[in-house]
Amino acid sequence: MNINTRCVLLLIGIPCSGKTKLSQSIRSVSFCEKLSDLLPKFKSLTIWTITYDLFPEINESKTYSNNQYKEVRRNIFNLTSKVVQETPSELSHVAINKFVYSKNQNLSSKQPKRIKVEIQTESHNEEKQNEKIDNEKKPNNKNYHLFIVDDNMQLKSMRKQYARLCVDNGYSFLQIFLNPSLQSAINGDLKRDQKFHVGEATITKMYNELEVTPVNNKLSTWENHLVKIDFNLNEEIIKSNLIQNTIIQTPQTYLKDPFKILFDQQFLSLFLHFWKTKVPGLSKNEQLQITKQKQYERSKTQKNLMHQLDLFLRKEFKKMIIKKKIQPKLLSAHKKIIIKKARIESNSWKLSQEQFFEKFLSQFINFTSSDVNSEKNKTLEK
Predict the structure, then answer these.
(1) Signal sequence: where (predicted)?
(2) Which among 31, 85, 94, 246 would be 20 to 30 A from 49, CA to CA?
(3) Domain match, 184 and 308 both
(4) Could you tell me whether strands 96-102 and 172-179 are parallel, antiparallel, or unpaired per DSSP bridges?
């Protein structure tokens, strides 16, 4: 089977659900050894961990407007996309960790917690040398890459962009949803160092915002590429067999040693199944929604007189600086004055769009330095 060499793994869960602990456990020699036996034609595995909380732009104490926060997340996604597509050999970023595992030698950039110690003997060294020669003779040995994105990812829209990245580039895609009770997460937050506290209000807000669709095997969708680690299910629900792709854990067992779950047979089979399975494209309904949204935004922009006027004035901006040798600061101030006047008149404008542009474009072109100074004086007088 032709398995993809790149897989994007999203960790979903509210703060203090154990995402970082699971991420650290995946970046271990023991798990990499287990995975290397299961992945065909294995040569090496590079694990990239992108931790949103470590980005300087994501600051819990800083209040962003909705648009600012979206812009910050968009920039992080763009950087992550670049890493996934280019896999740079050299990378220095406080929020991105790179760990490389090879069967022949440990190439990790960061020493793992568990180190395998071997007694070196002559026969052992000879076996290793023969194994190395055999591996070199094997054609098409593969360098695998696993990209762990460690974030709350509580909204579907946050995850969909990663699914689209994988669909567009043919990468594998997997989500692991850690689902503790709200109270256990709040209690865990209280045990954190003071500087890492998130706060009960924030955790509760994220818990209520969680958008994780239950797995439905009747539908082919990227949302089904999900493994759920649940701490809340009681025995009656478990026996009903109504849950799909769900692994049951007690909070005490998991948080004490999340490393153990990586060797759970159900977890391993689901993990490999989704790595080997091509992620479905967006559903027809989702594609239709995206198309409609794009068309709406495009028509809204085209109808927006102020936006179109701004584009017209920008084209003339450079010409004005060169022809009239006007200082850019003065010209920029004049442009703001023109836009302000146009905004007032746009509400009651009844003539054509062309006449609207012509009027304010002529005012902009016929500009003199005294125009700006006189406008500034009027503003000061008011």
Answers:
(1) none
(2) 246
(3) no
(4) unpaired
